[in-house]
Amino acid sequence: VDHELDYPKSPAEMDWSLHYPQYFALPDTQPEGAQNTKKVEWADVGCGFGGLLMALAPMFPDTLMLGMEIRMSVTKYVTDRIAATRQVQSLLPSESTEKQQGGYQNVSVIRANSMKHMPNFFEKGQLSKIFFLFPDPHFKNRKHKARIITPGLLAEYAYILRPGGILYTVTDVKDLHEWMAYHLNNHPLFIPIPNEELEGDAILEAARTSTEEGKKVERNKGDKWVACFRRADNPE
Ligand code: SAM
């Protein structure tokens, strides 16, 4: 227990059935020998109010995605938002145009300190996408080690991201953009993806525009800085 944060000792001990009931049978209702093979593949770190997840869930109904958020009230808000949306979806007739594929069963949120406990939730190479959207800038120099991208944490992100997986960063703070890009560029397991390569990419578009912070920046006509990286193959 860490300031009342709940986290499993290891990914194998995590019970996902409450988060994705349609994908994970409860252990005691499972036929003997049956195994849940589905895994969370995308993580939105510091997801805030959940705008990215709600945008991506119906676009990729077969992919399990998870928001991680440290603030309790915000996590509760996203939990309720997902539950309400699932409820509405389940009541819609299947022929209705508002009925989204997947019914938002593939999205969930967890209260977690992602600077401490990512490897408790995800095993090596489990994730194929990890998002850092408009993270807190921590401007003062002495607070830089509080940033969500640091050399030490990059080793963890590289561990849980599979080779070929993509790490997305978007921010409206130029100094933070330069800091994140600098550390990612200098890490041997992250290869920069030229922005042109991702042009028109629906996922990056959602990452830039569908979070609450991203919308606020847009309203204020602020700049957005994007840097994406591919997880390199493991060295021989
Ligand atoms: N990504 C969202 C968006 O674009 O709207 C939220 C951006 S907000 C500026 C940063 C969020 O990261 C906050 O909701 C904050 O509580 C969360 N956060 C900060 N440190 C965190 C940590 N160590 N673990 C999980 N979430 C964290």
UniProtKB/TrEMBL annotation:
Residues engaged in binding S-adenosyl-L-methionine: 46, 69-70, 113-114, 133, 211-213
Active site, UniProt feature: 136
Keyword entries, A-Z: Methyltransferase, Nucleus, RNA-binding, S-adenosyl-L-methionine, Transferase, tRNA processing, tRNA-binding
Domain of life of the native organism: Eukaryota
Pathway where this protein functions: tRNA modification; N(7)-methylguanine-tRNA biosynthesis
Protein EC: 2.1.1.33
Primary localisation category: nucleus
Places the protein is found: Nucleus
The reaction(s) this protein catalyses: guanosine(46) in tRNA + S-adenosyl-L-methionine = N(7)-methylguanosine(46) in tRNA + S-adenosyl-L-homocysteine
Function as written in the Swiss-Prot or TrEMBL entry: Catalyzes the formation of N(7)-methylguanine at position 46 (m7G46) in tRNA.
Similarity remark: Belongs to the class I-like SAM-binding methyltransferase superfamily. TrmB family.
Subunit-structure text: Forms a complex with TRM82.
Protein name: tRNA (guanine-N(7)-)-methyltransferase
Organism: Kwoniella shivajii
Residues of the whole record sequence present: 57 to 292 of 292
